[in-house]
Amino acid sequence: MKLIFEKSVPGRHCSLLPACDVPEATLPASLCRDTAPALPEMSETDISRHYTELCQQVHGVNCGFYPLGSCTMKYNPRIDEEMAALEGFTAVHPLAPAADQQGVQEVLDTAKQYLCEIAGMDDMTFQPAAGAHGEFTGVLLIKQYHESRGDHKRTKIIVPDSAHGTNPATAAMCGYQVVNIASGPDGCVDLDALRAVLGEDTAGLMLTNPNTVGIFDHNILEITRLVHEAGGLCYYDGANLNAVMGVVRPGDMGFDCIHMNLHKTFATPHGGGGPGAGAVGCKAFLAPFLPHSATAEEPGHLQVRSFRGNFLVVVRALTYLLTLGREGIPEAAQNAVLNANYLMARLKGTYTPAYDRVCMHEFVLDLSDLKKATGVTALDVSKSLIDEGIHPPTMYFPLIVHEALMLEPTETEGPETLDHAADVLRMLYQKAYDDAEAMHTAPHHMPIGRPDEVKAARHPVVRWQPEE
Amino acid sequence: MGSYIPSTPAQRQEMLQAIGLSSFRELYGDVPAEMYLDRPLALPSGMSELEAGRAVRAMAAKNRVYDVILRGAGAYDHYIPSIVKYIPAKEEFLTAYTPYQAEMSQGLLQSIFEYQTMICMLTGMDVSNASVYDGATAAAEAAAMCRDRKRRVTLVSATTHPDVINTIRTYCYGTGDELRIVPEKDGKTDPDALREMLTADTASFYVQQPNFHGLFEDAEALGAAVHEAGAMYIMGCNPIALAIMKTPRDCGADIAVGEGQPLGLPLAAGGPYLGYMATTEKHMRKLPGRIVGETTDDEGRRAYVLSLQAREQHIRREKAGSNICSNEALCALTAGLYMAAMGPDGMAQAAKQSMAKAHYLADALCAIDGVKLRYSGAFFHEFVTDMPKTEEVLSALSRAGILGGLSVEGGILWCATEKVTKAALDKTAAIVKEVLAK
User: Fold this and answer.
1) How far is A404 from chain B (nearest CA, A)?
2) C or N terminus of chain A, fewer CB within 10 Å?
3) Which residues from A are below 8 Å from B6, CB to CB?
4) What CATH class is the domain B68-78+346-437?
5) Contact criterion met (CB < 8 Å) for B272 and A79
6) Sequence-ordered list of residues with C-beta below 8 angstroms from that of B292, at least 6 positions apart, any chain
7) What is the mean pLDDT of chain A?
8) pTM (2 decimals)?
C-alpha cells in the first residue's frame, strides 16, 4: 500500500484550529527554520482511510489467537480502555497540586496495595515504562543497597543462560559484570553451577520463575538462600508471573525485588510495542532507594523517567484487578497453566516437547527432528501458521533449545481455540513431509511474503524520501 | 466476580482429564508446599463490569478537571484532534505485540516507518528510532550513546527540566559515569562556563530548546563550542516548536531528542508519553531501540521490517548499548497521526498561536504592578514572572477554574497553548491584578 506521504496533496488539510485571537508574536529570524517540515497534507477522510487500511494489515490478540511465548498475549478487556479514556484521568496535569489529583493518588495507592500483595512485596514504584525499564530500576535498587552499606566489592550479577536478553543487558547498564551460568538438564538453575560462582563479589541474581522454558524451579528456596548467604540480593523478572499470581508469591520465594509487566500479566494492551508499565516492587529494606520524580514528587532520589509513570496503563491494570479480584487472579493463573498443558498434550505424539513434563503457563517444542527429517524449520512452521490466521509462537528462544517454538496460550482462550491450533500445527507437521517447499516459502496469503532482512540491514532505508 | 476465561467448569474438568490430572493443585506440583499460598489474596472480591466501572469512575471524579491550563513544565495542553483520539483505539493497533512477524504486521511497521520519517522531517535528521519511553529517557539514552572508554563525562545545562537532569544522572550512575551541570546565566546556558567545562573526557553536552524557563538557547553557538572540543551535541527540542524553529540538525546537533507528548497525547497525570530520538546517518548503528526499515519481499514487493537488530539486547545481550525492547509504539502511531492531521500548516499554527498567546499573557501580567519577567531573552510559549503572593495568585486562579503556572522560587513559570482563548488570558490577568492589589 502507499505511504501516507504518497497520498499527500498540496493544500489539503483538516479544519482544526480557529484563527488566532491575539496579536502575532514573531520568532527572531535567526531562530526560524528554513523550510516547513514536509509533513503530509491530508483531508480527514484520507487519514481515516489510510489508518483503516493499515490496521487491516495488523493482527492483534483481540483479533485472533496469539500464542507468543513469554509475552502473555491475553485478551485486553474493553472496559479497561473506557476507564483509561475518562477525562478525569486524561486531563490531569502531572504537576497539578496534590489536592487536584486525589483520584490519581487513589489509583496509584490502590494498584500498589494489590500488586504488592500479589508479589509479596512491601513497596512499589510505577515509574518504569516497560519490563526492561523495570529491570533497570530493580537492579539499581540492588546497586544502591550495596553502596549504602559501603560494600563496593560486589561487581557481578548472575544470570542463567536461559534468561531473556534484557537481563544481561540490564546488568551491564547498571555497571555490573555479567556471570552467565548454565542451566541443568531440566532447564532449571544448576545449584552446583550457582555455588561455584557465588562469592563476595556477587551483587545479585536475576531470575525468571517459572523460567523461560515454562518450568517452576523447585529449588527456588535453596537458590535464593544461597544468594543471600553470599550477601547478594535476588531480582525476580516478572515476565512469567501470569503462571503463578495468587498461587505463590515471589516475595515468599525469597526475592527482594521484582518487576511486573502490567502489559502482560494484568491485561493492558501492548499497543504494537508499548506503552507498557514495568511496576517495580521491593521489600521494605529497599524502599528508600525507589525512584521519585524531582518535580512531581521530591528531589534527591534517582529517577528513571519524567513524572510518576505510565499512569493510564496503571488505570487499566487496576480496572482489571478490581474485575478479577481475589478469586479471579489465581483462577486466571490456574487456567493459563491448564491451557498450556492441554495444548502441549494435544501436540505430544506429533511434536517433541523440549521438556516432557507438566509445564507452567508456556512450553517449548524442539523441532530438531522435524528439521532433520524434512528440512522444515521452526521458522517455516511459524510462517505457515500465519497463513492459517494464527500468530506464530516465539521462535528460537530460549537459546538453550534448538529449533525452539515457545507457546503461551494464556487463560483467555477456550478449548475450541486450542483444539483448532493443535489441529493446524499437526496438519503442518504432516505437510512438512508432503510439501516442504510450500512451507519454506510461506506465507502465501499475506500482503507480503518473507521480507529480505539482510537487504534491510545492509542498505538501510529508514525513512521515506521524496523522489528527486 | 469478573473473568475473561471462556472455558466452562465442565470443560476445565475435561481438559484436566485429558492431561491426566484430577485437580488444579496437581498442576503446581513443582511449587514447594511451604510457599504455596493456601489463603485468599488480601484483595476485594472480584466485580462485575458495571461495578468495576463504577469504582474507577469514582476515582476519576476525585480529580480536578480545569477549563483552562496555564501550566507546562514538561507536559503541554495542546488541542488533540478528534480523529487522533479515535484511531489508536482500533483493536488491531491496540492489542498487537511488537511486530516480530513482519508478514502479519505490515500496517504497524508502516505506521512506525511513517512516524520515523516525520520525526526526521521535524528534526532535520537522517534516522529516527521507533520511540523510547519519554523525553527524559530519550535524553539519557542519547547521552549513553555518546560515552565510551575515553569520554565518560556528560555535560547537561542547568536550564534543563529537573526530571530530565535527574534521569540522565540516574543512567550515568548505572554505568558509573559522571554528570556535570553547566551553570546558567540570565536564564540561559552560560557559554563561557560551557567552554571551560569541555575537556578531553567530555562525551556530550545536552541542552533543552526552548529551555525549562521557556527561553530560546543560542543553540548554534553552544554546538560549535561542543564540536570544537570533539564532543557530541545533543538537543532536546519541543516538537511543536520545531514546526517553526530552526532544526537541531541546522543547529549542529548530532542527536535530537525530546518529549513527544505535545504531539497528540493527553496530559494523563504524566504518561504514557513518548520519547523521540533521531540522529545522523553516521551514528545510526549506535541508536538504541527498534528501528523499522524498508526492504522487499521474495516477490520484490515493498515491505517493512524491524531492522538493524544486531544493535539490540536479544542479539548482543550484555554487550548491547541499551536494554530497551518495548517502547511507546502506540504513542508513536498517535504522534504520526497527529502530525498528519495537523499537517505542516496546522503544526505551524499550533506553534505560532501558542507563542502569541504566551506573549500576550506575559504582556498582560507585566502591566500589573509588582510583576515582571525574570529573564530578558526571547521565549516560546513559557516564561517566568517574578512576583509576590504566588500561592495566593494560584489559589485564586484555581477557584476560577484556571490551573495557573508552576510555582518556582519567588515566581511562576507560565505556559500558554493554542487552546487558551484571549478571554481566558484576560481573566487570568484580571485575577492576578486583583490578588496583588489586596
Assistant:
1) 15
2) C
3) 412-414, 417
4) alpha beta
5) no
6) A462, B109, B112, B113, B116, B130, B304, B305, B306, B307
7) 96
8) 0.98
Sort out which chain A residues have CB atoms less than 8 A from B81's CB and list them.
14, 16
Mean pLDDT value across residues A218-245: 97
A43 within a domain of the structure (yes/no): no
Q: How far apart are CA A192 and CA A195, in angstroms?
A: 5
Across chain B, which distance is largest between two alpha carbons, in Å? 84
Question: Has residue A151 been placed in a domain?
Answer: yes
Q: Are residues A305 and A347 in the same domain?
A: no
Question: How close is the nearest chain B Cα to the Cα of A279, in Å?
Answer: 14
Average pLDDT over residues A309-318: 98
Please indicate, yes or no, whether residues A271 and A306 belong to a single structural domain of this protein: yes
Q: What's the pLDDT score for residue B334?
A: 98
A395 and A366 within one domain: yes
The C-alpha atoms of residue A154 and residue A145 are separated, in whole angstroms, by 11
Question: Which residue from B93, B126, B268 is facing A92, i.e. has the nearest CB?
Answer: B268
- Looking at chain B, which residues constitute the CATH 3.40.640.10 domain(s)? 82-337
Domain end point (choices A303, A322, A341): A322
Provide the 10 A C-beta neighbour count for residue B386: 16
Q: What is the pLDDT of residues A119-146, one digit of tens each?
A: 999 999 999 999 999 999 999 999 999 9
From-to residues of CATH 3.90.1150.10 in chain B: 68-78+346-437
Q: For residue range A419-439, what is the model confidence (pLDDT) as tens digits?
A: 999 999 999 999 999 999 999
Instruction: Please answer yes or no on whether B40 and A327 come within 8 Å at the CB atom.
Output: yes
Using an 8 Å CB-CB cutoff, list chain A residues near B51.
Answer: 322
Question: Is-contact A343 B19, C-beta < 8 A?
Answer: no
CB-nearest partner of A312 from B45, B93, B268: B268
What is the structure's pLDDT at A468?
66
B279 within 8 A of B126, measured Cβ to Cβ: yes
CA dist B425 and B423 (Å) reads 5
| Chain A nearest CA to B88, separation (Å) | 9
CA–CA distances in Å: residue A137 to residues A303, B136, B167, B307: 9, 15, 11, 27
Task: Measure CB to CB from residue A328 to each of B46, B53, B56 and give the nearest one.
Answer: B46
Could you tell me the fold of the domain covering B82-337?
A: Aspartate Aminotransferase; domain 2 (3.40.640)
Boundaries of domain holding A227: 78-322
Could you tell me if A370 and A302 lie in one domain? no
Q: Which of A463, A464, A465, A467 to mutate to test the interface with B (most CBs of B within 10 A)?
A: A463
Residue A449 belongs to domain with CATH number: 3.90.1150.10
> Taking CB atoms and an 8 Å limit, are B46 and A276 in contact across chains?
no
Nearest CA in chain B to A384: B103
State yes or no: pLDDT of A252 exceeds 90: yes
Q: Do A270 and A201 fall within a single domain?
A: yes
- Best probe of the A interface among B7, B49, B290, B302, by most A CBs < 10 A, is B7
For all residues of chain B together, what is the average pLDDT?
96
CA distance B257 to B232: 13
Domain CATH code at residue A203 = 3.40.640.10
Interface A–B counts its CB contacts (< 8 A) at: 710
Q: Which residues of B touch A270 (CB under 8 A)?
A: 95-98, 326
Helix, strand, or coil (residue B403):
strand
What residue of B is the nearest CA neighbor of A359?
A: B27
Count of domains forming chain A? 2
Closest residue in B to A161 (Cα–Cα): B317
Residues ≥6 apart with Cβ < 8 Å to B274: B131, B134, B259, B260, B261, B263, B265, B328, B331, B332, B334, B335
Nearest to B353 among A20, A164, A461 (CB): A20
- Return the percentage of chain B with pLDDT > 70, whole number: 100
Domain co-membership, A293 together with A337: no
One domain, residues A207 and A342: no
Same domain, A100 and A244: yes
- Judge whether A462 lies within some domain: no
- Say what percent of chain B tops pLDDT 90: 94
Q: What is the mean pLDDT of residues B130-137?
A: 97
- ipTM value: 0.98
B40 interaction partners in chain A (CB closer than 8 Å): 326-327
Residue in the structure block whose three cell numbers are 499537517: B343
